[in-house]
């Protein structure tokens, strides 16, 4: 069992931890941390943390309903107290980047915005504001976790009711209204084949030419994203040791998180049976090959794409350059191209991924399973064909049109080779049998 202590990793925390450890040891020896039924005494544990000034002294609401059947009284814990308690509870189970970036980052920011906008902690007002002004996909996650947070508080007898119960389930899938460009939760692979969420390849050339002229320090990074369909963190995390020139391929095997400022291995979501390294072909003298060759090569553990100051890329800065900053009256790359009537729609930087995937499948005719293998998005691939796809994907050129499905061609070649080997083996067996007959 994991229990939060409320001790922050700041100066003097070792002394606090040692004092708490000794106190808990005494409580255990005296049996005060165990209820009569053998379960953990959560209330006593919290009393100890309050006494050590590690948790606020929160009162418990005793009754859930008033005598006249009205709605239950407002909990004495604020939403943020409930949320922080829940986050502390979940901290040991979550990946650091997820905990910092989502639970203490994006999700909490959603709540702060809703409370500030409504000037209230009323659950219904918060729910309605979020569904009107934020991405519904993320809103469902926020409300679902809020429901779990209040359930935890009730279990610990700190709360009397759960005002967010069932709210997440009531949200239907429809576009969020009133959202702004930076509030859309677009980093999703659910719709990678939606051509409406991708630029055409002609539009890609317009964007790249404009960036090369106006923002040259972003050009290589942006073009790599367009040519590979990699995710934002994967492009930032690319190192020179990931480029295998002799094998004409790039290895996508890590991502970078701007919140924790750390590198992480790729997520293992079992899409491709636990594989944590993707192999993307870079045919010699092709567009991607020449792009990477044009960059002065660094040491193996150095990142390939750097900021204007020669540091690791901050995708927030790139996003601001891409879309502009309204507060500073700065127009972004796409905004300027739309005003010049060279583009007709705004798509987020993440949609460079959608653009590559739809271009490869619909324009170049590359098999969808191969593209999924390159880009690492989910697709229904059976165990029987997985290994074939893994082999074929490295042999296909991602920059030229396929006259016929390259995967089908390679499968047919493999079938013919197997048939020839089978016939050859049958001939050998026949000759051996004839030899045995002659001997006899």
In short:
It is built from 16 helices and seven strands. The protein is mostly helical.
Task: Give your account of this protein's structure.
By secondary structure, this protein is mainly alpha-helical. It has 3 domains: 13-64 and 72-170, no CATH class; 195-393, Intergrase catalytic core (hpI Integrase, Chain A, Orthogonal Bundle); 404-440. The chain contains 16 helices and 7 strands. It has helices at residues 13-29, 42-51, 79-90, 96-118, 123-133, 136-155, 201-214, 216-228, 232-237, 287-293, 315-323, 333-339, 351-363, 368-375, 383-393, 406-439; strands at 243-244, 249-252, 254-257, 262-265, 278-281, 324-325, 330-331. Helix 15 (383-393) crosses helix 16 (406-439). The model is unreliable at 57-66, 173-186, 268-274 and 381-387 (pLDDT under 50).
List the topology elements.
Blueprint lengths: L12 H17 L12 H10 L27 H12 L5 H23 L4 H11 L2 H20 L45 H14 L1 H13 L3 H6 L5 E2 L4 E4 L1 E4 L4 E4 L12 E4 L5 H7 L21 H9 E2 L4 E2 L1 H7 L11 H13 L4 H8 L7 H11 L12 H34 L1
Antiparallel strand pairs: 1-2, 2-5, 3-4, 6-7
């Amino acid at each position: 069992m994991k229990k939060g202590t409320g001790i922050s990793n700041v100066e003097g925390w070792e002394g606090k931890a040692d004092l708490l450890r000794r106190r808990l040891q005494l409580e255990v020896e005296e049996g005060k941390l165990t209820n009569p039924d053998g379960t953990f005494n959560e209330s006593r544990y919290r009393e100890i943390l309050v006494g050590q000034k590690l948790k606020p002294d929160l009162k418990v609401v005793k009754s859930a309903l008033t005598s006249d059947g009205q709605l239950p009284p407002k909990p004495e814990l604020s939403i943020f107290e409930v949320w922080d308690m829940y986050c502390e509870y979940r901290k040991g189970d979550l990946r650091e980047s997820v905990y910092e970036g989502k639970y203490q980052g994006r999700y909490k920011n959603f709540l702060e915005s809703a409370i500030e906008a409504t000037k209230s902690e009323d659950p219904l007002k918060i729910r309605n504001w979020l569904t009107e002004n934020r991405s519904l996909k993320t809103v469902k996650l926020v409300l679902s976790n809020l429901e779990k947070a209040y359930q935890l508080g009730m279990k610990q007898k700190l709360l009397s009711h759960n005002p967010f119960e069932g709210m997440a389930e009531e949200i239907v899938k429809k576009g969020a209204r009133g959202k702004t460009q930076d509030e859309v939760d677009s980093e999703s692979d659910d719709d990678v084949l939606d051509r409406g969420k991708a630029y055409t390849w002609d539009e890609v050339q317009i964007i790249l030419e404009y960036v090369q002229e106006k923002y040259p320090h972003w050009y290589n990074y942006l073009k790599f994203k367009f040519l590979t369909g990699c995710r934002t963190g994967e492009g930032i995390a690319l190192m020179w040791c990931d480029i295998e020139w002799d094998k004409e391929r790039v290895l996508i095997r890590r991502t970078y998180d701007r919140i924790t400022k750390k590198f992480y291995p790729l997520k293992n979501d079992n899409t491709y049976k636990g594989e944590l390294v993707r192999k993307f072909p870079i045919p010699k003298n092709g567009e991607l090959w020449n792009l990477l060759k044009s960059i002065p090569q660094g040491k193996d553990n150095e990142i390939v794409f750097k900021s204007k100051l020669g540091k690791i890329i901050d995708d927030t800065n790139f996003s601001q350059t891409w879309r502009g900053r309204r507060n500073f009256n700065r127009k972004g790359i796409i905004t300027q191209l739309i005003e010049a009537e060279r583009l007709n729609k705004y798509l987020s930087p993440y949609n460079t991924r959608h653009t590559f995937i739809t271009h490869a499948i619909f324009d170049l005719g590359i098999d969808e399973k191969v593209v999924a293998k390159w880009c690492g998005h989910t697709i229904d691939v059976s165990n029987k064909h997985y290994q074939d796809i893994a082999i074929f994907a490295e042999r296909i050129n991602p920059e030229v049109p396929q006259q016929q499905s390259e995967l089908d061609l390679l499968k047919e070649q493999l079938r013919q080779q197997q048939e020839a080997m089978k016939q050859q083996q049958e001939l050998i067996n026949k000759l051996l049998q004839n030899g045995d007959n002659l001997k006899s």
